[in-house]
Design brief:
Length: 500
């Protein structure tokens, strides 16, 4: 398939052609064409492409100008120059290959690369180059790829793509339809499909979805449902809507009618998650809750294509009760989580996509968040295996770590996928940044250790807040109930108030 690459795609391909042997990560936003990019890399030997879903195994075939072999299920390769493999299948077929069979290994959706199944493959082969492609910034996830990839060599995120007119802008909405999936089991990092369908496919919820469509959707609308039955039930509630499922034979005809505005709404259960050419989508409604950031960006990606007369995409996240599980919503597209935002304020996170970070920061900057922050940072540091040296960091929604002392803030920018950050213009590991900030505080601000050192605070902080602390808090926050705080909680609030 002849394809003229966009300038940035060609730039990426040219850069890869000059690389020294090694393992590198490339980040391209959904809709920027990572498949078209990696299939046009100049081959200097045999190529192995790794993917974790069936559609990602078959999708790249059309872009290659040579025979392509498949390793997945009943399909087996036969020494072709390019092999595309399902990770799960290949882990059981490694003895079919020699360790030096491939000059280049490409991992599609590389944010999965830390999984044991992927590691088994990486440990077996000895390629000249290993390239990981991902659309998903994982700052909100608890996975680092620094022991898989040595450097990020190319980045084009969703903000860049929108600002450079490759993708459409997004207006983000949250509509609480009252679902409760707090008891739905989790498998493979997401909600179990069968249980999710049982929880979501209820008449009262489907009525609420239809009402949200009627009230908020603009133009041609694509709705993502949990199952075939769920898609059909939603479509019945919306005049003119059509359900598109694996059973649907005339998909191309329906897409054409949708593009011609003859059908106002298509409701699907992951049929259009990726790989489908849908020129016109003006609203995307997520009625399929997920905590998988890749799946979420793929769903939203269906509406990011530019189209004449289309000003921006309206993205409607249908939300409800999720328990302790993180739910992907619009901020996930920017790698931002809502952990710091109190639950009763999360439904206020609406607006143009690039307005959300400032709004989230504002909503997270409140006493409930300040008090919980020690717990949030502790949990994150343990998961990442970092030693913060007991420094009282505040974890911002975008992943930045901030320590506040009177008249000064010290900020460590959020780590990237490889656990690196930038301090003083230099890229260093996150752990090195924590080490340097701790030494700096010990040297320059020893007098304020009672503020910036959590261990010091815990020694005296378990006792009830003093009258002086309560009076100071009430001076700044007249409506806040400070009577039941302990000294440490009160100190966290006052520290934040004085150092904002």
């Amino acid at each position: 398939m002849e394809l003229k690459l966009r300038d940035y795609q060609q730039e990426c391909v040219d850069l890869i052609d000059t690389l020294e042997p090694g393992s590198y990560l490339i980040q391209m936003a959904t809709g920027c064409g990572k498949t078209a990019t990696f299939t046009n890399i100049k081959r200097k030997g045999r190529v192995l492409v790794l993917a974790h879903r069936e559609e990602l195994v078959t999708q790249p075939i059309k872009y290659y100008d040579c025979p392509v072999g498949i390793e997945m299920g009943n399909r087996k390769s036969n020494n072709e120059p390019v092999i595309i493999a399902s990770v799960m299948s290949l882990t059981h077929r490694l003895d079919k290959f020699k360790p030096d069979d491939f000059d280049l290994i490409i991992t599609d959706e590389a944010h999965h690369a830390a999984a044991n199944s992927y590691r088994k493959i990486y440990q077996y082969f000895n390629p000249r180059l290993h390239l990981g492609f991902t659309a998903t910034p994982n700052r909100g996830d608890n996975v680092r790829l620094d022991d898989i990839f040595q450097d990020i060599i190319f980045e084009r995120d969703i903000k860049w793509a929108i600002q450079n007119n490759y993708l459409t802008d997004i207006y983000c909405m949250r509509v609480n339809i009252g679902y409760d999936i707090s008891k739905v089991a989790r498998r493979m990092g997401d909600f179990a499909p069968g249980e999710l369908e049982d929880a979501m496919n209820q008449d009262v919820l489907n009525e609420a979805i239809a009402e949200a469509y009627k009230k908020y959707a603009k133009g041609q609308t694509l709705i993502f449902a949990c199952s075939v039955e769920h898609a059909e039930a939603i479509a019945e509630k919306i005049p003119g809507a059509v359900a598109v499922t694996a059973k649907t034979k005339n998909r191309d005809e329906l897409i054409q009618k949708f593009t011609n505005r003859e059908i106002p709404v298509l409701v699907n259960c992951m049929i259009f998650a990726e790989g489908t050419d849908m020129p016109l989508v003006e609203t995307v409604m997520i009625a399929r809750p997920t905590s998988n950031s890749s799946l979420y960006t793929q769903m939203v990606g269906r509406g990011l294509r530019l189209y004449p007369g289309k000003e921006k995409l309206t993205l409607i996240d249908l939300v409800g009760t999720t328990g302790r599980a993180n739910l992907c919503t619009a901020p996930s597209l920017l790698g931002i989580d809502l952990n710091n935002v109190p639950a009763n304020k999360q439904d206020e996170i609406q607006g143009d996509l690039f307005e959300l970070p400032a709004l989230i920061t504002k909503k997270a900057d409140c006493p409930a968040s300040w008090i919980r922050n020690v717990e949030i940072v502790d949990l994150w540091a343990k998961e990442q295996e970092y030693n913060t040296h007991g420094v009282n960091y505040f974890k911002m929604p975008n992943g930045d770590m901030v320590v506040s002392i009177p008249k000064k803030k010290i900020r460590i920018p959020a780590q990237d996928e490889l656990g690196k950050t930038t301090i003083g213009g230099k890229k260093v590991s996150m752990q090195k940044a924590f080490d340097e900030v701790y030494l700096y505080l010990k040297e320059k601000y020893a007098d304020y250790e009672y503020i910036w050192n959590i261990d010091s605070m815990r020694k005296w902080g378990r006792y009830p807040a003093s009258e002086k602390q309560i009076t100071q808090i009430k001076k700044f926050m007249k409506d806040f109930d400070a009577e039941n705080l302990n000294k440490m909680q009160a100190s966290q609030i006052l520290n934040r108030l004085f150092c904002r």
